[in-house]
């Protein structure tokens, strides 16, 4: 799967793929990540990418020319999806993640500090995605959240397929509590049911825990 990220701060994005599982996914050829800097596509001599808003108001607005030209310069594969990261977008979740993981290429448009000129939306017509009801200084972290969660669904990224099966949300419920050694830590003990080797009982206990946890923490998921 190929990700093309339009960003004014390519180093921020590239740094993420120098560590851990995302680094391994790149090395294994499961994902490719390219960055494109709209600043390299400016047509003005100061390489300006933003300007003051027409009609007045605080802040700056990203100009359409560098973004649209940078977008048009990206090589498009057959099965492509373009996503703009913005707090105004559809809120990201497992269902969207699953849907996005079926594309062979995702082009991500990141803003920084400021809004996009509306004509960027009108011309590119991207899907618009938010990672939650809060505002960040830029779209780079949201873009990395999407790439990370989509990539970990792709075959071969995680060590074992089971490590995804028990994820929170994979069956609409939160994950059950996990324990490892020691059996007794400062008097806090591992539940007996996990030690008796009876897998039917263990599965029942875990399902009960998942439902209980979801009821307490995220009743909205149960409905
Ligand atoms: N850019 C700034 N805040 C954002 C958010 N919550 N989701 C996606 N993109 C953003």
Describe this structure in words.
Helix content is 35%, strand content 18%. With 223 residues, it is α/β, with parallel strands linked by helices. It folds into two domains: 150 residues, SPOUT methyltransferase, trefoil knot domain (Alpha/beta knot, 3-Layer(aba) Sandwich); 55 residues, tRNA(m1g37)methyltransferase, domain 2 (Trp Operon Repressor, Chain A, Orthogonal Bundle), CATH 1.10.1270. It has a five-stranded parallel sheet. A three-stranded mixed sheet has the order 3-4-7. The mean pLDDT is 96. Adenine binds next to β5.
Spell out the helices and strands N to C.
Answer: EHHEEEHEHEEHEHHEEHH
For this structure, what is the CATH class of the largest domain?
Answer: Alpha Beta
Terminal Cα separation, in Å?
34 Å
Low-confidence stretches: none
Structural class: alpha/beta
Associated small molecules: adenine
Based on DSSP secondary structure assignment, what is the total number of beta strands? 10
Q: Which CATH architecture of the largest domain? A: 3-Layer(aba) Sandwich
Whole-number mean pLDDT = 96
Report the radius of gyration as a whole number of Å: 22 Å
């Amino acid at each position: 799967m190929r990700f093309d990220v339009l960003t004014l701060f390519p180093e921020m994005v590239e740094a993420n793929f120098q560590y851990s599982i995302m680094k391994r996914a790149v090395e294994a050829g499961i994902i490719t990540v390219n960055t494109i800097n709209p600043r390299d596509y400016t047509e003005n001599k100061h390489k300006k990418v933003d300007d003051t808003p027409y009609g007045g108001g605080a802040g700056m607005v990203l100009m359409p020319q560098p973004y649209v030209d940078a977008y048009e310069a990206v090589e498009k594969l057959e099965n492509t999806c373009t996503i703009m990261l913005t707090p105004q977008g559809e809120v990201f979740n497992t269902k969207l993640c699953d849907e996005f993981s079926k594309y062979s290429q995702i082009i991500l448009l990141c803003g920084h500090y400021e809004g996009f000129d509306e004509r960027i939306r009108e011309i590119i017509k991207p899907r618009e995605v938010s990672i939650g009801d809060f505002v960040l200084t830029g779209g780079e972290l949201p873009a990395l959240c999407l790439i990370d969660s989509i990539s970990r669904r792709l075959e071969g990224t995680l060590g074992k397929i089971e490590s995804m099966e028990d994820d929170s949300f994979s069956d609409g419920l939160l994950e059950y509590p996990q324990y490892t050694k020691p059996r007794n830590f400062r008097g806090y003990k591992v539940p007996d049911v996990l030690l008796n080797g009876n897998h039917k009982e263990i599965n029942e206990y875990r399902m009960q825990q998942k439902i209980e946890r979801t009821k307490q923490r995220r009743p909205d998921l149960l409905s």
